[in-house]
Every structure is written in C-alpha cells, then in structure tokens.
Design goal:
74 residues, mainly beta, Complement Module, domain 1, two-stranded antiparallel ribbon, 5 strands
Length: 74
C-alpha cells in the first residue's frame, strides 16, 4: 500500500488483483417482513373532523383540514 497526495489531501492507494468482490444473491435467505397494518382515515375519524390519540400519557390530535389534509399535533 502506498500513500499518494492529490490537491494536498492524502489518498490511500493499494494494488488489488480483484478490486471488488462479487456479490452473490441467495433467494430465501431472509424472512419476509410482515405487512404493515393499514387503517383508513375515514374509519378512524368516523365522520368527525378530529380524533384524540393517547400515547404514553400524552394526547395527540389528528385533525382533518378544510383541504382534506391530515395534521397530527401534540
């Protein structure tokens, strides 16, 4: 291994016969992730425009705006 300088910054260089190892893909090597549960905002709000969510002793407000956007505030 030798050290070269480019623009005043040290750069490490080496002599490698194979610069990068080949990657191998093994199918089935990992377990598939479980699907994330989905809930529609309509079923959460149930016709209302605001919902209070309690989490670790705190209250969070999920609000539906006039532009049909959702805002979550503490």
């Amino acid at each position: 291994m030798s050290i070269a300088t480019t623009l005043g910054l040290p750069m490490v260089t080496s002599r490698l016969a194979h610069p990068l190892p080949r990657l191998s893909l093994r199918l089935g090597a990992t377990e598939p992730k479980p699907a994330v549960r989905r809930v529609s905002s309509q079923s959460l709000l149930d016709g209302e425009r605001e919902l209070v969510i309690e989490h670790q002793g705190n209250e969070y407000h999920l609000r539906l705006t006039r532009n049909d956007k959702l805002i979550l505030t503490k």
